């Protein structure tokens, strides 16, 4: 009886289930025999399969796809390179070209050919009068596209071009192409400071115009109109799609888009007047250097000078000259460092008409006269006795500029405001400066300075040229600013009565540009509207359509009425027409037009410089009449007295204007393009007729 194998009836029957795992499926080493041959066989089959796939792929690449692969390798790449656009021309107001373009021949050398035929470098160097090192330097210049020939010689002589054409096979990779460059049909010195020059774009200019399509090979305006209107003049570059093979060799041109020439900038400048102004200024400065100052006995150095002619009713700049000057042709095709250094050291690149800062002297008296009449300080007809010196009442030694102010001339006696301007009575304006200073509670602070600012002195002019300076009118605040900037040169920080007196007749720390003075007198003469000076009259597209026509732009107003303007203009007319006027002798000698039918007024200025230097010579003229068409400003730095140096320049300019009035602006059209030929002009008034010689038969 096997009772121990039975289970009680009450216990449930349990069957164990074996789970599925790797251990269940794979026998352990002690349960099965090792099978190394089997495993090696599996691995070998896998390796063989992979090798077969690789062989198949290689077969496909080298046999099946060999043709297409070869085509892909030898296929040309396309490289797009820009084609520079011809620069827009610049004309004067009569549609005469002042800055145009000329086509010249440029000798080019292919870099690829130079690599394959190195001997051509020496051949080209000998042909063009350069060294092989110079040619190699040009080939390595990063400004030129590596897939285009590099320019070895610009404006190559015709004989050299002809020789190349006859011996082309001897110069592999050498070619000739036509290029445009700046051309000045009226001469490179005509309006040089106005036109400006162009050069290779600088890294800073390239960085500032990242999205404008410039490259390191682009040209860029550096000064003058060329710089200010760079975007208008540059044009739209074309492009060439060049085919380059796998060896990096140029194959051919796939596609070409021609460039579009730049716009034409039409200026307000009158060519004949511009040439007259430049000649008059240069001749006077050179003569001034050889003529002793009658008062000091010294030869004035006349280091530089400037002239401006402005239309007072619009702000249009009709002429502008600065001396010394330079020749724009020096910059065509690049300028050598030695030539550039010479121009820079002479100061010729400075446009002193807009950047020169000069003590204004008596030309400033017009501003002080306006302030007096505006504020009711002194009536225009109130006489003042001018004894020849002004002694500051209750003066102390510490009163800044001093206690005694002497006139340049002997006392004028009794003068009112018009008479004080005519004879340039210093005493009269010393007195105005004193009265304003001691009655500040009545007239407020800086009444003269505020009037000067309303006239445009010390205020940005808004001219469409870069490089213009902004003057300053002396004041307590200006003294503090100057001292903070340079304590050694400007030690005084206190504003005294004497300083206000000096400022009232254009001395002290006041400095202005010729442009600012032209704006101030124009504002007076047109009745109180201050216009922005404008060199450009408009923009014309290459197809002859006017894109922009610039209208007069008002920048400010000054409150004037006939009670203010009439006595001032009366005094300014007396400067030229009254026998006691400071410029009367000069105009009697140099003006050769009818002063009754073409009436001229003006103001002399003799502005003191530092001790031992000759004064600055100023003259501001206007005409004809009391509603003038022209304001002419001349200043000669250390030129001596205004009547003897600057006034003759202005008189000679009016000799031209009296018989050659400035005409309207003429815009080019498709049927009337700009001309390189200057229009004829009438010789200035007083020019002697050409002499003729006759011979008597038998003599």
Describe this structure in words.
The protein is of the alpha+beta class and 699 residues long. The protein has two domains: 79-157 and 173-262, Penicillin-binding protein 2a (Domain 2), CATH 3.90.1310; 271-657, Beta-lactamase. The strands form seven sheets. Strands 2, 3, 4, 5, 10, 18 and 19 form a seven-stranded mixed β-sheet that branches. The chain has a five-stranded antiparallel β-sheet with strand order 12-11-23-22-21, with helices on both faces. The chain starts with 21 loop residues before the first helix and ends in a 42-residue tail after the last helix. The model is unreliable at 1-23 and 692-699 (pLDDT under 50).
Number of domains: 2
> Architecture of the largest domain, according to CATH?
3-Layer(aba) Sandwich
Return the average pLDDT rounded to an integer: 86
The major pleated sheet works out as: 7 strands, mixed
Features:
single chain, 699 residues, alpha+beta, Penicillin-binding protein 2a (Domain 2), Beta-lactamase, seven-stranded mixed beta sheet, five-stranded antiparallel beta sheet, 34% helix, disordered N terminus, disordered C terminus
How would the blueprint of this fold be written?
Elements: H1 22-25, H2 36-64, H3 66-74, E1 77-83, E2 90-91, E3 97-109, H4 111-116, H5 119-128, H6 132-139, E4 150-153, H7 158-166, E5 174-183, H8 192-195, E6 198-200, H9 203-208, E7 219-221, H10 224-228, H11 230-233, E8 238-244, E9 250-257, E10 264-267, H12 271-288, E11 304-310, E12 317-323, H13 337-346, H14 352-355, H15 365-375, E13 384-386, E14 389-391, E15 404-406, E16 413-415, H16 417-423, H17 426-438, H18 440-443, H19 447-455, H20 476-485, H21 497-504, H22 514-525, E17 529-531, E18 536-540, E19 546-549, E20 554-557, H23 562-577, H24 584-590, E21 601-607, E22 616-623, E23 630-637, H25 646-657
Parallel strand pairs: 2-10
Antiparallel strand pairs: 1-8, 2-3, 3-4, 3-5, 6-7, 8-9, 10-18, 11-12, 11-23, 13-16, 14-15, 17-20, 18-19, 21-22, 22-23
Helix pairs in contact: 5-6, 12-25, 15-17, 15-19, 15-23, 16-23, 17-21, 23-24, 24-25
């Amino acid at each position: 009886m096997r009772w121990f194998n039975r289970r009680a009836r009450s216990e449930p029957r349990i069957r164990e289930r074996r789970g599925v795992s790797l251990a269940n499926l794979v026998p352990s080493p002690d349960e099965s025999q090792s099978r190394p041959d089997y495993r090696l066989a599996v691995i070998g089959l896998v390796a063989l399969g992979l090798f077969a796939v690789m062989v198949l792929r290689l077969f496909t690449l080298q046999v099946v796809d060999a043709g297409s692969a070869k085509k892909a390798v030898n296929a040309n790449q396309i490289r797009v390179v820009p084609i520079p656009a011809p620069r827009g021309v610049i004309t004067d107001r009569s549609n005469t070209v002042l800055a145009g373009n000329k086509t010249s021949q440029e000798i080019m050398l292919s870099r690829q050919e130079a690599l394959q035929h190195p001997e051509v470098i020496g051949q080209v160097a000998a042909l063009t009068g350069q060294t092989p090192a110079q040619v190699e330097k040009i080939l390595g210049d990063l400004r030129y596209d590596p897939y285009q020939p590099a320019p070895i010689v610009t404006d190559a002589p015709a004989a050299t071009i002809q020789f190349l054409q006859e011996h082309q096979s001897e110069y592999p990779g050498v070619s000739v192409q036509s290029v445009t460059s700046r051309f000045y049909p009226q001469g490179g010195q005509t309006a040089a400071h106005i036109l400006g020059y162009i050069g290779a774009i600088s890294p800073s200019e390239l960085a500032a115009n990242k999205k404008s399509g410039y490259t390191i090979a682009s040209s860029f305006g550096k000064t003058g109109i060329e710089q200010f209107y760079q975007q208008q003049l540059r044009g739209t570059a074309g492009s060439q799609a060049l085919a380059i093979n796998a060896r990096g060799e140029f194959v051919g041109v796939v596609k070409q888009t021609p460039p579009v020439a730049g716009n034409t900038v039409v200026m307000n400048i009158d060519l004949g007047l511009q040439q007259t102004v430049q000649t008059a200024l240069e001749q006077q400065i050179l003569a001034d250097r050889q003529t002793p100052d009658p008062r000091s006995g010294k030869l004035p150095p006349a280091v530089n000078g400037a002239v401006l002619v402005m239309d007072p009713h619009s702000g249009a700049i009709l002429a502008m000259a600065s001396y010394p000057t330079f020749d724009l042709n020096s910059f065509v095709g690049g300028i050598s460092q030695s030539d550039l250094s010479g121009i820079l050291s002479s100061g010729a690149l400075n446009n002193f008409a807009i950047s020169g800062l000069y003590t204004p002297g008596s030309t400033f008296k017009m501003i002080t006269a306006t302030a007096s009449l505006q504020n009711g300080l002194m009536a225009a007809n109130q006489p003042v006795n001018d004894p020849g010196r002004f002694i500051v009442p209750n003066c102390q030694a510490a009163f800044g500029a001093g206690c005694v102010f002497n006139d340049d001339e002997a006392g004028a006696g009794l003068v009112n405001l018009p008479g004080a301007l005519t004879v340039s009575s210093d005493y009269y304006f010393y007195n105005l400066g004193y009265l304003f200073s001691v009655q500040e509670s009545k007239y407020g602070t800086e009444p003269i300075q505020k009037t000067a600012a309303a006239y445009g002195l010390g205020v940005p002019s808004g001219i469409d040229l870069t490089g213009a300076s902004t003057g300053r009118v002396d004041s307590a605040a200006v003294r503090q600013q100057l001292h903070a900037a340079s304590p050694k040169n400007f030690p005084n920080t206190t504003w005294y009565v004497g300083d206000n007196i000096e400022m009232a007749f254009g001395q002290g720390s006041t400095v202005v540009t010729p442009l600012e003075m032209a704006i101030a007198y124009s504002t007076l003469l047109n009745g109180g509207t201050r216009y922005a000076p404008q060199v450009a009259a408009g923009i014309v597209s290459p197809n002859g359509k006017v894109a922009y026509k610039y209208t007069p732009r008002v920048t400010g107003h000054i409150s004037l009425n006939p009670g203010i303007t009439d006595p001032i203009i009366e005094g300014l007319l007396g400067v030229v027409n009254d026998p006691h006027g400071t410029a009367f002798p000069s105009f009697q000698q140099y003006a050769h037009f009818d002063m009754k039918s073409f009436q001229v007024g003006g103001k002399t200025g003799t502005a003191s410089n530092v001790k031992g230097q000759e004064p600055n010579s100023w003259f501001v003229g206007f005409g004809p009449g009391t509603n003038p068409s022209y304001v002419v400003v001349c200043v000669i730095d250390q030129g001596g007295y205004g009547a003897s140096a600057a006034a003759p320049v202005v008189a000679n300019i009016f000799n031209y204007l009296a018989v050659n009035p400035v005409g309207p602006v003429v815009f080019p059209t498709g049927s009337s393009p700009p001309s390189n030929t200057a229009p004829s002009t009438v010789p200035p008034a007083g020019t002697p007729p050409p002499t003729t010689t006759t011979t008597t038969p038998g003599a």
